Amino acid sequence: MPAGPVTIYPASHGANEFKGWGLATNTSDLMAKSCPKEFKKIKDNHILQSSFDNITAKTNIFPSSNSFVNGAVTAYSDHQHLEIRPEDVWLSILSQLNIYINAHAEELRDMFVAHQGQKNLDIDEAELDIRGEGGGRTKFRVDWGKFSYKMTQLIAENVKDPSLREWIIPSFTTTGELDRAVAAIMMMATMQQYFSYSCSIMCGLPSVTLLGEKSDWEELAKKAERLVTFGEEPKQWYALLKPVLARFVTSFDAPEAEETKDFWQKIAHYSGGGSGPTYLSGWITAFCFWDGKGKSFYNLQDYPPDITELRTRGRSTPILQLDAARYHRIERGNVPPGWASVPVLLVDEKGDQTRCVLVAGHVALKATSSGKALHASAYGETGLDTIRPVSGWWMYKTKSEGEFKAAREVRAKELVAVYGHPYMDDDPDDDPDDEKEWMYM
Fold it and tell me: Per the CB 3.0–4.6 Å rule, which of 132, 166, 174, 430 could disulfide with 434?
């Protein structure tokens, strides 16, 4: 049995070329399409720093608000090869945990910290290069990836269980510095109800390849066990994750087995459509337990043991069951974001404050070629037939309250002119700038 990587061939057909959506041409373009709500908050449309600074139209990076879930679903439905790293699965778990903890921060406070309110954590080693008047934009020379990693050390010193940091930051054989930085920003975002952060300036799958080694995926399954300690809903969530993570591991033992192929063929299923909503089901919904506001999609009463299928406009969809876990469905447009954001306050030696935001998570898909002929290709042509999730981060200076309010008022007037009201979808609970993030999935 291979230690890793391992490739499973669930279907007998070849791959189709990935056509993608809205190819990103630079870091600003990627953020505008993957995280539009955050992009609207950027002051002067200027990103201070990012892990995506080297993106061009030739790097084949495509925007996605949740590239693990959306990438898996796209590869399944459009017939592309799929590559997954253990970090991709772990960061998807962390993004959901971030949503849950922020939505239940006060209920969980005693579990994590002994203080009330927000305790400020300050790092005092960053360096800024501030140009004089007329010198153009301010240039931040701090490595914000390293800043976030160091900040998690301070968090560990101020929570009840310091092992939380070691648990969150991945250490698989495939883990790189960027993965640790993204996980660190995720940790900062997850703990932002308990801490504020500042920096003082002294100066259908043709194939699925599981990357890494089998031991990485065993470690991933082991790490997830701690989720049950965070409350009743996380216990329900882990019950859905456990069979999936276990089958990631057994895929290394028997990649050719029909049982393995069958599992990967059940990653996603569409139902509905037409004039009504399109539903997404399959085990990928285990990574969509909470919506973006922390409300659970999963209701046990909707899936009683005696019900084996769900009906949508006369069509039935079998309820997927793995071991004792029964998997829910969600509307396709409700896939939760795979990224998180957290405010950071920069204070220079004069005491001047700059409000910034760190954003990190699964925000793109990388398309490559396997070198194999495309499915149904008459002349053996090759193309971009393989996709994998890409994670990264941005740091930007946020607009002031006044600037943001003015921008919202302008946007509201534009929407009134087009729709007759300041809402994108007739929902007065929405913000005037509440664009549909699923436009770039």
Answer: 430
How far is the C-alpha of 378 from the C-alpha of 50, rounded, in Å?
Answer: 42
pTM confidence score: 0.84
Residue where the block lists tokens 């070329």: 17
Token look-up 């007065």 returns 428
DSSP letter for each residue of 210-270: E-S-HHHHHHHHHHHGGGGGG-HHHHHHHHHHHHHHHHHHHHHH-TTSHHHHHHHHTS-EE
To the nearest whole number, what is the mean pLDDT of the chain? 86
Phi, psi of 70, rounded to the nearest 5 degrees: -70, -35
In the chain, where are the structural domains located? 6-251+338-399, 401-433
The reported pLDDT for the residue numbered 194 is 97
Q: Is residue 207 classed exposed, middle or buried when 0-12, 13-18 and 19+ CB atoms within 10 A define those classes? A: buried
Q: How far apart are CA 68 and CA 56, in angstroms?
A: 22
Find out whether 337 and 361 touch, Cβ atoms under 8 Å. Answer: yes
**429's tokens:** 């609970």
- Helix-helix angle 232-253:258-265, to 10 degrees: 140
Bond prior to 170 in cis (omega within 30° of 0) = no
What is the percent of the chain where pLDDT is above 70?
A: 87
3-state secondary structure of 404: helix
For the chain, how long is the longest CA-to-CA vector? 72
Single out the residue of 260, 319, 374 nearest to residue 13, CA to CA. 374
Place of tokens 């990935």: 18
What distances in angstroms separate CA 179 from CA 85, 210, 407, 441, one per listed residue?
11, 17, 34, 21
User: What token pair was written down for 217?
Assistant: 């995926």
Name the helix (H) or strand (E) containing 270: strand 269-272
303/240 Cα distance (integer angstroms): 13
Which H helix or E strand runs over 345? strand 339-347
Note the pLDDT tens digit of each residue in 269-328.
Answer: 877 654 456 888 899 999 999 999 999 999 877 777 777 777 665 566 788 999 999 999
